[in-house]
Amino acid sequence: MTQRIYYSEPYRRAFDAKVLAVDEVAGHSHVTLDQTAFYPTSGGQPFDTGTLGGAAVTDVIEREDGAIAHVISGALRVGDVVTGEIDWLRRFDHMQQHTGQHVLSAAFDRLFGVRTESFHMGQLSSTIDLAREVTANEVAKAEDDANRIVWEDHAVAMGMRKESARTGTLRLIDVQDYDLSACGGTHVERTGAIGMIAIGNVEKFKGGSRVEFLCGGRALERFRVWKGALSAIQKYLSVPPIEMAASIERMQEDAKASQRTLRSFQEKLAAQEALALVARAAGKTLIAEAIEGWDAQGIKSIAVAAAAAQPNLVVALFTATTPAQVVIARGAKSTVDAGALLKQLAAKFGGKGGGKPDLAQGGGFAAPVAELIGAVNGSRG
Ligand SMILES: [Zn+2]
Q: Could you say which of 4, 191, 241, 278 has the lowest number of CB atoms within 10 Å?
């Protein structure tokens, strides 16, 4: 058994301890001590990092025998007395998130009778899974009440309750006048140290809601990220953040209208291009060309119109882009299988695509357009 300083003194950052055992596991030393302030991964809270005898602690594991293993790369010997120092910024962050979780879960429970089913502390944010779906209004009210508790600066105390011989002693975390839960994590001493509880995304999850939240430093960090993103967007939109959504919506509508106009002109021009193509074919039954200035949609219009104008013609058109895109269309009287021809090209040049005997399209071919055209022309001998 290791004496757990993180329970008796959750704010201790440094400690001295005696090395009880050193096990070599997969090239690392697993060191057990007579006491430690390093929290091992458990109950949804990640392990502490820091140093032990000057060596970096890369993992802390709670073993089944009740000992705590500190994973380091250095060499320590049994009997050594070493100094351990935990990364306080990381630990304090975990304490803010963990205590904040108790307050937020209690807010949902007290206001709406919604229980928290599980808790996960992630790298950037944490989540609680609620037993039922919650509305935006309920989320806002729970967030307000949780922050009221933060600002009222309630005491947070840890207690113990003797359970049955089988389950042993239960650790309790008591947020004065607000919540009492069983928890084995580390917590701040007063709710004021949580700083703030901000709710992020809320999504449906297993018949309930998954609520993302950020406490203290993480809420500030998220604010900075969003402020940076909004400033960057503001350079393009020249409107305040509150008007951005409407501004983007207008821009998208304008873009769609422009697209429709462009398409209608393209259709008209494609018909002209198709007539010119049929004239160039001069009675041939296969024509393969790259057409400058047209996208995949455009060459499709041209190919289809040309095949309609000349029933015995097969038209293979490429965009003049790299990698090239291709559309193959055949007239009603042609017996060439456009889909099969495209598959041949794909097999030879590593592109992809597909279609039916009368119309096929694809792209991503790893070859110059001239070579692709050559391959189409060669396909008919
Ligand atoms: Zn807790």
A: 241
